[in-house]
UniProtKB/TrEMBL annotation:
Upper lineage: Bacteria, Pseudomonadati, Bacteroidota, Bacteroidia, Marinilabiliales
Database matches in Pfam families: HSP20
Family: Belongs to the small heat shock protein (HSP20) family.
Name this polypeptide is given: HSP20 family protein
Residues in SHSP domain copies: 35-153
InterPro entries reported in the protein's UniProt record: A-crystallin/Hsp20_dom (IPR002068), HSP20-like_chaperone (IPR008978), Small_HSP (IPR031107)
C-alpha cells in the first residue's frame, strides 16, 4: 500500500491571507508618513428625522477655526487645510521617533451630495468636543403631512 500526501488547498490560502495581513499591518503602522499619504476621512454619522437631516463628523485634535464649510448646488463640502510647518510638531519629531502611529491631525476634504429637499440657507453647524454637527432642515414642501380623512357622501 502506498501513502499519498494530501495537502488541503484551503490551508494554503488562509496562510497567505494571514501573511499578507501582517505584512500590510506592520508596513502601514510603522511608516511615519502613512497618515500624511493616506486619504483618511473622519468617521461620519448621517441621521434623518421627519423635518431634518443631521451629519456628525468626528474631528478629534482639530479646532473650530481649522474647519471650512461650503454649500453650493446641493453639494456640502467639509474641508481642513492645516499649515504645513507646525513648530510644535516639528520640535516633538526632533525629540521622539514614532515606533507606532495610529492617529494624527491631517488635511482632508469630504463632500456630501445633499437632496434638493434641504433648505440650504438654514444649515446650522456646531462644533463641540471634537464633534462637528451639521443640521440640515428640510424645506416646508418636503415635510410629510398628516393623512387627510375623506368623507363619503
Amino acid at each position: 500500500m502506498n501513502l499519498v500526501r494530501f495537502e488541503n488547498p484551503y490551508r494554503t490560502v488562509n496562510r497567505n491571507l494571514v501573511d499578507d495581513l501582517f505584512s500590510n499591518l506592520l508596513k502601514n503602522d510603522y511608516d511615519e508618513n502613512y497618515l500624511n499619504d493616506c486619504n483618511c476621512k473622519p468617521a461620519t454619522n448621517i441621521l434623518e428625522k421627519n423635518d431634518t437631516f443631521k451629519i456628525e463628523l468626528q474631528l478629534p485634535g482639530f479646532n473650530k477655526e481649522d474647519v471650512q464649510l461650503n454649500y453650493h448646488e446641493n453639494l456640502l463640502t467639509v474641508k481642513v487645510e492645516l499649515p504645513e510647518n507646525n513648530e510644535e510638531e516639528n520640535k516633538q519629531e526632533e525629540e521622539f521617533k514614532y515606533e507606532r502611529r495610529e492617529f494624527g491631525v491631517y488635511n482632508f476634504e469630504r463632500k456630501f451630495r445633499i437632496p434638493k429637499s434641504v433648505n440650504g440657507e438654514k444649515i446650522e453647524a456646531h462644533f463641540e468636543n471634537g464633534i462637528l454637527e451639521l443640521v440640515l432642515p428640510k424645506k416646508e414642501e418636503a415635510l410629510e403631512k398628516e393623512p387627510v380623512d375623506i368623507k363619503i357622501n
